[in-house]
Amino acid sequence: RCLSDWSSDVCSSDLHASALRLLNRSIQGGFFCYPYFVSDPILKTLQGDPAFEKLMDLARQRHERFRSRYF
Asked: DSSP letter string over 3-67?
Protein backbone atom coordinates (compact mmCIF):
# COMPACT_ATOMS: atom_id res chain seq x y z
CA ARG A 1 0.00 0.00 0.00
CA CYS A 2 1.01 3.56 -0.62
CA LEU A 3 2.28 5.60 2.31
CA SER A 4 -0.42 8.20 1.69
CA ASP A 5 -3.03 5.46 2.19
CA TRP A 6 -1.43 4.55 5.51
CA SER A 7 -1.52 8.23 6.36
CA SER A 8 -5.26 8.25 5.69
CA ASP A 9 -5.76 5.24 7.94
CA VAL A 10 -3.81 6.89 10.74
CA CYS A 11 -5.85 10.10 10.38
CA SER A 12 -9.00 8.17 11.12
CA SER A 13 -7.38 6.98 14.35
CA ASP A 14 -6.69 10.54 15.55
CA LEU A 15 -2.94 10.03 15.45
CA HIS A 16 -2.24 13.29 13.66
CA ALA A 17 1.51 13.44 14.26
CA SER A 18 1.97 9.96 12.81
CA ALA A 19 -0.26 10.79 9.84
CA LEU A 20 1.79 13.90 9.13
CA ARG A 21 5.04 11.93 9.30
CA LEU A 22 3.72 9.32 6.87
CA LEU A 23 2.36 11.96 4.53
CA ASN A 24 5.72 13.73 4.59
CA ARG A 25 7.50 10.45 3.77
CA SER A 26 5.07 9.88 0.92
CA ILE A 27 5.72 13.33 -0.56
CA GLN A 28 9.49 13.09 -0.06
CA GLY A 29 9.43 9.65 -1.62
CA GLY A 30 7.89 10.93 -4.84
CA PHE A 31 4.13 10.70 -4.36
CA PHE A 32 3.04 14.32 -4.36
CA CYS A 33 -0.31 14.14 -6.12
CA TYR A 34 -1.77 17.35 -4.76
CA PRO A 35 -5.25 16.87 -6.31
CA TYR A 36 -5.51 13.49 -4.60
CA PHE A 37 -4.46 14.88 -1.23
CA VAL A 38 -6.92 17.78 -1.26
CA SER A 39 -9.81 15.56 -2.35
CA ASP A 40 -9.20 12.76 0.16
CA PRO A 41 -12.00 13.14 2.74
CA ILE A 42 -9.95 11.46 5.46
CA LEU A 43 -7.04 13.89 5.09
CA LYS A 44 -9.52 16.73 5.63
CA THR A 45 -9.23 15.96 9.35
CA LEU A 46 -5.72 17.47 9.16
CA GLN A 47 -6.76 20.70 7.46
CA GLY A 48 -5.98 23.74 9.53
CA ASP A 49 -2.91 22.13 11.07
CA PRO A 50 0.07 24.33 10.08
CA ALA A 51 2.26 21.28 9.46
CA PHE A 52 -0.34 19.82 7.11
CA GLU A 53 -0.71 23.11 5.25
CA LYS A 54 3.06 23.26 4.82
CA LEU A 55 3.06 19.71 3.41
CA MET A 56 0.24 20.63 1.03
CA ASP A 57 2.24 23.63 -0.19
CA LEU A 58 5.19 21.33 -0.83
CA ALA A 59 3.01 18.76 -2.61
CA ARG A 60 1.38 21.48 -4.73
CA GLN A 61 4.74 22.94 -5.76
CA ARG A 62 6.16 19.54 -6.70
CA HIS A 63 2.98 18.55 -8.50
CA GLU A 64 2.95 21.77 -10.53
CA ARG A 65 6.65 21.46 -11.36
CA PHE A 66 6.15 17.86 -12.51
CA ARG A 67 3.09 18.80 -14.55
CA SER A 68 4.88 21.70 -16.27
CA ARG A 69 7.85 19.50 -17.19
CA TYR A 70 6.03 16.45 -18.47
CA PHE A 71 2.57 17.54 -19.65
From this structure: HHHHHHHHHTTT-HHHHHHHHHHHHHTT---HHHHHH-TTGGGGTT-HHHHHHHHHHHHHHHHHH
Q: Are 47 and 16 in contact (CB under 8 A)?
A: no
Q: What is the pLDDT of residues 29-59, one digit of tens each?
A: 999 999 999 999 888 888 899 999 999 999 9
Rounded distance, CA 70 to CA 60, Å?
15
Residue 71, judged by CB atoms within 10 A of its CB (0-12, 13-18, 19+), counts as exposed
What predicted TM-score, i.e. pTM, was given to this entire model? 0.78
Whether the Cβ atoms of residue 37 and residue 65 lie closer than 8 Å to each other: no
Using DSSP's 3-state secondary structure scheme, residue 69 falls into helix
The residue ranking higher by pLDDT, 47 or 6, is: 47
